Amino acid sequence: MSAPAPGGARGGRPLWTGLGLAWAAAAVPLVLATFIGLNGWARVLVQITGVAISPWYTGGKVVRVIDHGAYRTHLHEPVFTGLLGPRKTGFVQVDLLTPEPAAATAAGGARGAARAAAVPDSVHLPGHLVESVDFDGDGAADFRLDVDTRVGTARVTAFNPRVLGVHEIIRFEHGLGLRVRLRNRS
Amino acid sequence: MADATLTAAAPHTLLKSSLLALPMVLLSGLMLLGGPNLPRDPLRLAPFLAVYLFVNVLFFRMLRTGRTERYRAAFFIPFAVAFVISFLSNLIEARGSMQLTAGDMASGRTPFCHMVIPMTLVPAALTRTIIFPGSLLRGFAPVAGMFVIWIGASLALGRGFCAWGCFFGGLEDGFSRLRRRPRVRHIAKVWSYLPYAVLVAIVLTSAASLTPTYCMWLCPFKAVTEFPALTSTVARFQAGIFLSLFLGLVIVLPVLTRKRTQCGLFCPFGAFQSFTNKVSPVDVRIDRERCTDCNKCVNSCPTFSLDRESADRGGTRLSCCKCGTCVDLCAKGAASYHVRGTPVGWAPERARLLFIYPAFLFLVTFGGGMLQEALHRVLLLASTGRMIR
Amino acid sequence: MRGLLLGLSSGAVCLASCAPVLIPCLLGESRRVRADFVLLGIFLAGRLAGYLAFAVLAWSVGALLRPQPRTFALLIAASYIVLGALMVVFGLDRPPAACPVPAAGRLRRWQALVRPPLLPAVLGLVTGLNVCPPFLLAFAEAAAARTLGASLLFFLAFFLGTSVFFLPFPALGAFRASAALRTVGRLTAVVVGVLYCGMGLGMLR
């Protein structure tokens, strides 16, 4: 799969030789620039491409935060992203988070966060939560979540036929995330 | 790597080797330190000095002896071991476990690995999203940072990344050297196409499912990094696959064949990276006027990148990772590094220098930090009885 | 008309889902663009047969056939495994000539007996039954159709709408000169098959 050099097995053309040597010599500055300017190049790359982490992992953008005092509800926008168009089914993520990190996290920084992760903050959430969610912004509740935060289980009562059921429950450091399966509008 | 003794290329004199090594002495110090100041903590200073001395001795020997492969491997293999030590230590320190939970993924705390790159490109082009549960710019091994390193490595080294940069490759490189002679000598050429098949399969299935299917089902290195929490039958089944592939492709087959079987017969990133050989400035050529068709290069190539047909055409297959094995082995000097655009056989030592300088610098920069971190952990263990802070 | 429009809007989804099956077939099997059109036609015919057969079955029994979610999930899982196994059979149809393992010769004789002549059709059939997301839609629509004819017409129009998106695939036949690509195509089929088997087994939990 490798072609002989231009100009025959032993012959060569000065222009190509010069260009090749220059290209090879540029490899050292290229390696240096890669590592020395790494953070800067990374930011430029993200800006130019405009990419983001897939919402299938992040849960999508947070569109509303409701402060209940003892905890906060973060409602994400519904996720239906597909490769060549939106998918027929997706989910909406609802996070139930404590408003402040646990004391151990605040005091211990990264190590505190590790210790906090070993004792999830979901135990600091109220034991039983009921949350009515309007994900399409029409003013009417689309489903109701009944959440047992100690055990980490949830039941969904659907008021909108697009709601299909609980898809996944995620334990965060500071609470729970619930993904409810939805059918796409179209 | 080879059954026959490696033969020395033309070495440089002591003075010339010293002069040629001087820029590396300065650059390696700069890149290993990451700044102008020496570490104050003795448990950091000692690893830095050890690694600094080690890499410069290796590079000096590379110049002095005219040999490439053994000194490359002398850093590449410890680099892989150091990666496992430092990665796992950091992981357990941060998370308490090798297991990856849904919360970790949703929080973007998964370090990005270069193996994922081929799977992300089609979805990124069509949906402007990266199908990986990591972070773009923050944390350890962010996505954008690894992409930048990959682009730089591809332009400078091509698939040379697999021999001079991949922190997984050193594991099987090491295992492939345990026996003096191979037990399995012949592997059908058709299997050398499997990496490309795995590449196409994972690109298609990842695009269809918008999940990195290689990471979920086929990655052997999950056995030594992180893996989804074993909280379901599926997860345990997947873990069984990872462990089996690691044992088979990274340990057993390299020991039996004395080849890098994971790299040459399975790795889809290696297949993907082969195409970047078209844009890198240096490749390996066989000078047909010097070649005696002894087949030593064909038999010794660790990644199945040389066969009779390619050698007859005067070069390697697309998958060549420029490790230097065939170059060091060729008694007639027919196999050599070659700068694109120059005639075959033109100033081979100059071509070698033009390759090993950026390659070794990349290896030192990318791997030197991990080697320092691993030594630091070992010293921590020796002094405090704990490897984890 | 509704079926056709739905097919045109869903075709991209079908394309993404069917590509892991169709592309290895095209790469591994054929040598010319015209032959690739034939192969595509067989694949799509298999897919259509799957759709129509299920439309008849679902309509004829109606709501009574609507399976429990668990049973439905098991059916999907089983069809993933079947599809995966078929892909592996397709990929291994010509074992490597230089393979020293004596069993390869016996394997080749066995495969010559069991390999259906229209393997692409079977692949299309099974693809249409499981990995194609509109299959779920098909089930709901068929059970709700008033007449059998309406159900069949709906799916025929839907199939035509989705098939438009598959027309560029035979261009892969332009790679006719490369034996290496054909080898890659067959091996890809094996890998995709193994992945689908794994995914199917995962769904069986």
In short:
With 389 residues, chain B is mostly helical.
Question: How would you explain this protein's 3D organization?
Answer:
The complex is a heterotrimer of chains A (186), B (389) and C (205). Mean pLDDT of chain A is 83; it is low at 1-9 and 102-121. Chain A has helices at 14-25, 27-36, 38-49, 55-58, 103-118, and strands at 52-53, 62-67, 72-76, 89-97, 128-133, 143-148, 153-158, 163-172, 175-183. In chain A, a hairpin with a 4-residue loop joins strand 6 and strand 7. Chain A has five helices and nine strands; from the N terminus they run H-H-H-E-H-E-E-E-H-E-E-E-E-E. Chain A has 186 residues and is of the alpha+beta class. In chain A, the strands form two sheets. In chain A, strands 2-3-4-9-8 form a five-stranded antiparallel beta sheet, with no helix packed on it. In chain A, strands 5-6-7 form a three-stranded antiparallel beta sheet, with no helix packed on it. Chain B folds into three domains: 9-97 and 348-389, no CATH class; 101-280, no CATH class; 281-346, 2-Layer Sandwich (Alpha-Beta Plaits), CATH 3.30.70.20. Mean pLDDT of chain B is 92; it is low at 1-8. By secondary structure, chain B is mainly α. Chain B is built from 17 helices and five strands. In chain B, the strands form two sheets. In chain B, strands 1-3 form a two-stranded parallel sheet. The two termini of chain B are 39 Å apart. The longest helix of chain B has 37 residues, at 348-384. By secondary structure, chain C is an all-alpha fold. Chain C has one domain (2-203). Chain C contains eight helices and no strands. The longest helix of chain C has 29 residues, at 33-61. The termini of chain C are far apart. The relative contact order of chain C is 0.26. The chains are: A alpha+beta (186), B mainly alpha (389), C mainly alpha (205). At the A-B interface, helix 1, helix 2, helix 3, strand 1 and helix 4 of A face helix 3, helix 4, helix 5, strand 2 and helix 6 of B. Strand 1 (52-53) of chain A pairs parallel with strand 2 (129-130) of chain B, so a sheet runs across the interface.
Helix and strand topology:
The complex is a heterotrimer of chains A (186), B (389) and C (205).
Chain A: H1 14-25, H2 27-36, H3 38-49, E1 52-53, H4 55-58, E2 62-67, E3 72-76, E4 89-97, H5 103-118, E5 128-133, E6 143-148, E7 153-158, E8 163-172, E9 175-183
Antiparallel strand pairs in A: 2-3, 3-4, 4-9, 5-6, 6-7, 8-9
Chain B: H1 14-33, H2 42-65, H3 69-95, E1 99-100, H4 102-106, H5 117-127, E2 129-130, H6 143-157, H7 161-164, H8 169-175, H9 194-209, H10 213-218, E3 227-228, H11 233-257, H12 261-265, H13 268-274, E4 282-286, H14 296-300, H15 308-313, H16 325-329, E5 335-339, H17 348-384
Parallel strand pairs in B: 1-3
Antiparallel strand pairs in B: 4-5
Chain C: H1 2-29, H2 33-61, H3 69-91, H4 103-114, H5 119-129, H6 134-144, H7 148-163, H8 179-203
Helix pairs in contact in C: 1-5, 1-7, 1-8, 2-5, 2-6, 2-7, 3-5, 3-8
